[in-house]
Amino acid sequence: MGVNENVQKPLDHLSAALAPEMEAVNRLIRERMSSRHAPRIPEVTAHLIEAGGKRLRPMLTLAAAKLLGYDGPYHIHFAASVEFIHTATLLHDDVVDESSQRRGRPTANLLWDNKSSVLVGDYLFARSFQLMVEPDNMRALEILANASATIAEGEVLQLTAAQDLQTDEDVYLQIVRGKTAALFSAATEVGGVVAAGSPEQVKALFDYGDALGIAFQIVDDLLDYGGVTQTIGKNVGDDFRERKLTLPVIKAIAAADAEERAFWVRTIEHGDQREGDLEQALRLMADHGAMEAARRDALDWAGRAKAALTALPDHPIRTMLMDLSDFVVSRVA
Q: Which of 11, 81, 139, 148 has CB 3.0 to 4.6 Å from 128, enough for a Cys bridge?
């Protein structure tokens, strides 16, 4: 299993359709990431924000608002806020995970230090809340504030569940809903709220973002074991080396016999990893069909995302969002 390079990227179509709005978001991001007194803040922020990320989450906010016919200015504020939240969490995650690579480049904590990464992440969280309050929309503020808390909760849950072979698929889903899907669903939901969508429309947008985010994370977990370093922007097998219990590993452990379980105890619980262990982990996942089973789960969540969109107006943006659901899972061949 690897990256499918032959799939046309619907994200490019969505980006083209939202180009004027995204340019406004990018201008606002560059304006608000500045600091008169601490030049390291824009240095660290620019290193990550300008690293070639697709800006998927803010695009989801813009797309949701446009799908419901919004023509005001405030979806720009919320989209920029979503991107700041995302960037802040990446800075913090790389410190927690002791990562050395992000989007194919050295991480900020490696180029500067952990203290700078944490403090700049804090600054971006503060900036995101400044952006949230400017439109004076309490419901939208509540959505993004709740998402920020849920993301932190998901990261802490992952920390406490890490290296615990009792972690099952229900706990994994709870972690993914926190650390990844929460911002996807908040991004789409807040777009519906700022566009004054009906409760049914806003709920549909939330459901779409939630399912898309879960599919996205499952695929990311699969790519860690079958992707290409230059394509996925990190080293293949990092999750195994960091002893993370992602879905394919959880499925392999659930099907393991006593000898196989002893391997997982040694490598994941005890952290005693030796040469050839990554290859052995891949063999065990293949023997039990864990990778393909996880891919089927991702396909199911992508299908749920598409189903949620049927409650929304027939619009070219809706078609692009449906195509995006398919693309997320087609990244793995």
A: 81
DSSP string, 201-248: HHHHHHHHHHHHHHHHHHHHHHHHHHS-HHHHTS-TTHHHHTT---HH
CB proximity list for 171: less than 8 A, separation 6 or greater:
157, 161
pLDDT at site 44: 82
The per-residue pLDDT of the chain, averaged, comes to 90
Which of 188, 160, 190, 185 has the alpha carbon at shortest distance from 175? 160
Check pLDDT > 70 for residue 68: yes
pLDDT of residue 237: 86
CB contact set of 43 (below 8 Å; sequence gap of 6+): 112
DSSP string, 272-322: ---TTHHHHHHHHHHHTTHHHHHHHHHHHHHHHHHHHHTTS---HHHHHHH
SS3 3: strand
Spatial contact of 191 and 75, defined as CB atoms under 8 Å apart: yes
Neighbouring C-beta atoms of residue 30, cutoff 10 Å: 15
Residue 205 CB neighbour total at 10 angstroms: 32
Asked if 102 contacts 94 with a C-beta cutoff of 8 angstroms, the reply is yes
DSSP symbols for 139-159? HHHHHHHHHHHHHHHHHHHHH
Amino acid letter, residue 216: F
What is the predicted pLDDT for the residue at 230? 43
Q: For residues 259 and 273, what is the distance between their CA atoms, to the nearest angstrom?
A: 16
The length of the chain is 333
The three-class DSSP label of residue 71 is coil
Token pair recorded at residue 284: 């065990």
| CA dihedral angle for residue 53, residue 54, residue 56, residue 61, rounded to 10 degrees | 100
